[in-house]
Amino acid sequence: MGITNNLIQQAGQHSVFVQTNNAAGNLCIAAFTGNRSDNPGVFAGGDDLNLAVLGGSTVNFVGFADVGANNSGFDAIANAPTGQPARCP
Length: 89
Hints:
Blueprint: E1 2-4, E2 7-8, E3 16-19, E4 26-29, E5 31-33, E6 36-37, E7 49-52, E8 58-61, H1 67-70, E9 77-78
Parallel strand pairs: 1-5, 2-6, 3-7, 4-8, 7-9
């Protein structure tokens, strides 16, 4: 899955929220580039990017260390992915 080239002008909470709801779920984000976050948390506090990984599930995120460099305004990041592989399977 890729999340690319989005403009999030005003988000009620998080601009981008990645959440797993299934303990056996596996998600891999192959690309996260070219996005712009202008106003997260307008109504109730939030982050530019928030990861919520349910115990037992995994979220692998290619290039997670470069989210701030590859996306404009992504300086408030909450939580971390399970892994940071070079590519998704």
